[in-house]
Amino acid sequence: MTDDLETLATVFDSLATGVVVCDRQGTLRYFNREAEKILGAGLQEIAPRAWSSVYGCFLPDQRTPYPPDQLPLARGIRGEEVPDELVYIRNQWRPAGVWVSVSSRPFHDGDGAIRGAAAVFRDVTQAMSILTGGKVLPAVAQGEYGEFLERLDRLRGHFDRFARVVEQTEDSVLITNRSGIIEYVNPAFEQTTGYRADEAIGQTPRILKSGKHDDRLYTDMWNRLVRGRSFRGTLINRKKDGDLYWTEQTITPIRNSSGEITHFVSLLKDVTEERARQEQEFHLSLAARIQRRFYDLDDVGEGLDLAANVYPAATIGGDHVDVLRRPDGEAWVVVGDVSGHGFGSALLMAETRAYVRAFAASEADLGRLLSLVNGALATDLDDSSFVTLLLVAIDPYKLTYRYASAGHVSGFLIRRSGEVVRTLESTDPPLGIFPDRQFSSGASGVLAPGDIFVLLTDGVTEVKEDGGAWVIDYVRAHEGLSAKDLVEGICTAAREQYDGRQQTDDCTAMVCRVNR
After folding, report:
1. How far apart are CA 433 and CA 60, in angstroms?
2. Engineering a disulfide at 57: which of 33, 52, 93, 253 sits with its beta carbon 3.0 to 4.6 angstroms away?
3. For residue 348, what are the CA distances in angstroms to 280, 296, 353, 387, 494?
């Protein structure tokens, strides 16, 4: 039993709430550490009639001694349950005075008889200072005291609701006095900044200063506040561990009934993640605009009606289309697909595009070109990344073509009659997997006027399980359309297969018709 009592006392001593216990005769039996801290004194061997005078208990007017028999603990040993009674404490140990909110209730033995009472209380001085502007509450006549307590009770109700909101909000709340000394921070402030309440209280908001803003900003802010004007802005603050974070901050002056500024309330919303998201969206949008320019294939020269379009699964994608017009009259059309999606794939796509263009300036053999691009990419890629690429060199004057494919999905060469003259199958593995691989020069053939090359990525061919045969059927059914209209029709039909679901792969199509 003794061990249980010691354990219970240890638990009570760890509480941030004052606890006082008395027996049914009113003899004080227990004070926890927080009770001694709040009242300024510990357990005294005194009768209940001396409680008010010894501990300095006053009514809310801060002048009238609290009637001893009306103290919450005294009412508790008479069997009453007292919720949230406001008591002002001023004594030789607490000359400045503190406000406490006290609740009490009796406890009983096994037969239901009262054995004593317990009172729990918390220091609400800061809250009352804000509510009263630091002023002494007005004295009231005896006949008006009941009405005064009723008004005060309503005020406490409003305060309790306000306190619960402030304590539970996810945004940081910081309250300073007129000199800028922190008097209160809520739990969200502690969680966001890393400063415990006892570390922040008594300091100034300078503990959050990041050094990322000019001192003039803070000077202008303070001048604005002391003139009674609110401040709103986005600031970079510093946490206790040194990490920086973005906040949308509002600071509002609080006035008392005389119009004097007594406090400043600051609401800080951590927008670090939102800023990062916005910054990422900005960069993605910028990258998407740049990437769209890569797909501008208007200048393809004479003899060809060519169009291509790419619909990324995300803001930017890893699919690639390009046209290179060579001095000898050949047009090299390129379709590629980078493994994965998103920003990394887009960067790799841009790198692949640059390598192809650079090496094509001096290398006419498609196989050697792919070997050079492969060697360059292999040094930059990890084991999980690769690039597929289909190159078709078309001579619209000689009516010939040649092609090479590094692991890319099959393209199709379709006659005006609808016959598939050739399926452009892969001739080598994807780029970036085997650094020393020497790629073949592929295959070649003869063209006829009106022939159509249809080049795709797997985002189009895999929306149905026929390996892209549906695209051939679409081209046959719409042979009279321009290359641009055919491309849009193929991409639209592919994306419709998702039926409102999130597109999971980039959809890319290129159509090139030989007009000669």
Report:
1. 81
2. 52
3. 18, 19, 9, 8, 25
Cα separation, 350 vs 442, in Å, equals 24
Residues in the chain: 516
C-beta of residue 128 within 8 angstroms of C-beta of residue 85:
no
User: From start to end of 55-113, where are the E strands?
Assistant: 57-58, 82-89, 98-108
Q: What is the dihedral of CA 348, 351, 356, 358, to 10 degrees?
A: -170
Whole-number pLDDT of residue 141: 44
Rounded Cα distance, 75 and 82, in Å: 8
Q: How far apart are the C-alpha atoms of 235 and 238, rounded to whole Å?
A: 10
Crossing angle of helices 469-477 and 483-496, rounded to 10°: 130
As assigned by CATH, the class of the 294-514 domain is alpha beta
Other CB atoms within a 10 A radius of the CB of residue 509 amount to 30
Token pair, residue 479, equals: 């042979």
Overall average pLDDT of the 100-122 stretch: 89
Q: Which fold, 12-165?
A: Beta-Lactamase (3.30.450)
pLDDT tens by residue, 32-91: 888 999 999 989 989 999 999 999 999 988 889 999 999 999 999 999 998 888 899 999
What pLDDT was estimated at residue 54? 93
- Taking the model in full, what pTM does it have? 0.53
Helix, strand, or coil here: 413?
Answer: strand
CA-to-CA separations, 303 to 203, 300, 394, 411, in angstroms, rounded: 78, 9, 10, 20
* Other CB atoms within 10 Å distance of the CB of residue 151: 12
Answer yes or no: same fold for 12-165 and 169-270. yes
Which residue ranges make up each domain of the chain?
Answer: 12-165, 169-270, 294-514
CATH number of 169-270: 3.30.450.20
Mean pLDDT value of segment 488-514: 87
pLDDT value of residue 4: 46
